[in-house]
Design goal:
This protein has 376 residues and is mainly beta. It has no helices and 27 strands.
């Protein structure tokens, strides 16, 4: 594990002008570690509570390593933070402590980042990538890094993307699931452990709805029928199969329930919510990242508290979790080093703790690197 994954920063959307749950573009806030300027507030000073980045409205955000990428409401793409191996898409490797535009296009729609690369979708449905590509995670048929966006194939039917630690997953508009990059733990779902440098379909299904590429070589996905599936590494029970250290190289269903709604996969744990508003976690829990008020590891889903007002599971990552409730309040738990939980301290908390008192948080993405991962 490189040191770019040992700090941590968060970014989230927040619209202070909205008295209820915000929808659409919003102001961008960041907190946590800032050694490479990844918060984007033109400093390299850590922050333990949310700080606004710029004064314009943003529509999506992602991060990789200690780098950030975000899309403004006008469709422009911006990057900042650590520039190693081209992660800021500026055709160089220079760190940036505030957002810098990537090119002049206004057609960017979605962006997501893994441990060391970014992927993005344009409004025309084409998919693009930049950053480290040594495991084929950029999907352009090569195993090199790129310092500016490169298109993956020529198709314009991409709908959803998720980038993990050296691998990437995406769903097309026809409901098919595609993967590429490192397959060392079976996380590409191909019944083998082979790397792929261009997209390859997972099975023949056309009913995939959500996918999340975790940091610790595991993949989680939800189908349109509400069933939950996982494949890849299972060192700490993060596949939810009531086992550990049993990797799966093809999709395996988690239980038999059909009411899973969204999923976020962390380093070696997962957080998911059901359609009834309950929130569940499984995998490693030694840093309190499961939110069940202990440091225990669970290999099958366990409910987090008894609340039934949780919104979509948005982020589970290296050692912590952030989730927004239906009332638009923001909650965090796990390790708080560098202020990464946004609760104005660096303490560890093992049960949900509210971030501030505002009830106007909305998430196109809450992002962080090294501690809280990325969720879409």
């Amino acid at each position: 594990m490189s040191n770019r994954w040992q700090g941590g920063f968060i970014q989230a959307y927040f619209d202070p002008l909205t008295m209820g749950p915000a929808t659409g573009p919003g102001n961008l806030y960041g907190w946590g570690r800032n050694a490479n300027g990844q918060i984007g507030n033109d400093t390299v000073v850590d922050a333990s509570s949310p700080i606004q980045i710029g004064s314009t409205l943003w529509s999506d955000v992602g991060s990789c390593g200690n780098s950030s990428s975000a899309i403004k409401s006008d469709g422009t793409l911006w990057c900042w933070g650590q520039g190693a191996q081209g992660k800021t898409a500026q055709n160089d490797e220079i760190d940036l402590s505030s957002p810098v535009q990537v090119g002049a296009l206004t057609t960017w729609s979605k962006v997501d980042g893994g441990s060391n690369h970014f992927t993005a979708i344009k409004t025309d449905g084409s998919i693009w990538a930049w950053g480290t590509g040594t495991s084929g995670q950029l999907g352009d048929g090569e195993a090199v890094w790129r310092s500016s966006p490169v298109q993956i194939g020529a198709l314009t039917t991409w709908s959803t993307i998720s980038a993990g630690n050296g691998f990437t997953a995406a769903i097309k508009t026809d409901g098919t699931l595609w993967v590429w990059g490192s397959g060392a733990s079976g996380q590409l779902g191909q019944n083998d452990t082979t790397n792929r440098s261009s997209p390859i379909q997972v099975g023949a299904g056309t009913d995939w709805a959500h996918v999340y590429a975790g940091y610790y070589s595991s993949m989680m996905a939800i189908k349109t029928d509400g069933t939950l599936w996982g494949f890849g590494a299972d060192s700490f029970g993060q596949l939810g199969q009531n086992t550990s250290s049993v990797s799966r190289s093809s999709p395996t269903q988690v239980g038999t329930l059909t009411n899973w709604q969204t999923i976020a996969a962390g380093t070696a744990f997962c957080i998911a919510n059901k359609t009834d508003g309950t929130l569940w976690g499984w995998g490693i829990g030694s840093s309190g990242e499961l939110g069940v008020n202990n440091g225990v590891t669970y290999s099958s889903p366990i409910q987090i508290g008894s609340d039934t007002d949780w919104g979509d599971a948005k982020i589970a990552s290296y050692t912590g979790t952030l989730v927004i409730k239906a009332d638009a309040t923001l909650w965090a738990w796990g390790t708080g080093i560098y202020g990464r939980l946004g609760i104005n301290s660096d303490v560890k908390v093992s049960s949900p703790t509210q971030v501030g008192s505002d009830a106007t948080w909305t998430v196109a993405d809450i992002s962080n690197v090294a501690s809280l991962g990325i969720a879409e």
